[in-house]
Amino acid sequence: MSKIRIVIVEDDPDWLRGLTSYLVKEADFELVGQASSGQTGVELLERVEADVVLMDIMMSDSPDGIWAAAEIVQCTGAKVIMLTSMEDKELIFEAFKVGAVDYMVKSNFAEIPQAIRNAYANRSPIHPSVAEKMREEFRRLKHMEHEVRVKELRDLLTPTEVQVLDLIEKGHTQTQIADKFVVSIRTIKVHVGNILRKLGGKSSKEAAQKAKDMGIL
Q: 42 burial class (0-12, 13-18, 19+ CB within 10 angstroms)?
């Protein structure tokens, strides 16, 4: 049976010794290297082949592990599992964005062997905190996209067309709107035609409802 080749990148010597002692007891694991910083970890992966890298997120009081994870993912075929002392959603999300496949809280060290096997077999899960962060990011991007779309449509409409839409949404007929603006019904029909061309919709009421739903009115 081929063993899973593991590299550990960790700057806490006590934790490194403890984790190493724990993992060497697993018959299907082979520790092929250790490093104490992101830079030395990247350099190590240039010399040895590893299947899974256990990477501390915070080293020397900086998120050095995220940079190192990005380099390793880009340049090798190793799967990177981030190790963290506490669940910092922002950092964990950044780690997933650069290609890490999993993360483990150090206090849950008993779960690390199975996480290694899952990563090796491409079965690493998306943890709930990361999934929530991804949903937050998706909602933020959708909101930004909506705001841009509303601005684009608002810029397309003339002030008069917005007024016409507002009156249509409030239940006024085209004849009533023409009387209110003291213009011909034909002029209002031209405005409505322009509105339908810009906003879409089969009727002026549908276009007005769309404008209201999008926040234009």
A: buried
Q: What is the pLDDT of residues 1-27, one digit of tens each?
A: 689 999 999 999 999 999 999 999 999
CA distance 69 to 162: 52
- C-alpha atoms less than 13 angstroms from C-alpha of 200 in its C-beta half-sphere: 2
**pLDDT tens-digit series, residues 42-70:** 999 999 999 999 999 988 766 789 999 99
pLDDT at 85 (0 to 100): 85
For the packed helices 174-181 and 185-199, what is the interaxial angle rounded to 10 degrees? 110
Residues paired with residue 80 on neighbouring β-strands, in sequence order: 53
Q: List, in sequence order, every residue forming a beta bridge with 4; answer none if it has no partner.
A: 29
Check if the beta carbon of residue 187 is closer than 8 Å to that of residue 178: yes
Q: What is the C-alpha to C-alpha distance for residues 100 and 49, in angstroms, rounded to an integer? A: 17
The tokens for 216 are 């234009």
Q: Which residues have a Cβ under 8 Å from the Cβ of 110 and sit 6 or more positions away?
A: none
Q: Would you call 182 helix, strand, or coil by DSSP?
A: coil
Cα dihedral value 77, 79, 80, 81, nearest 10: -170
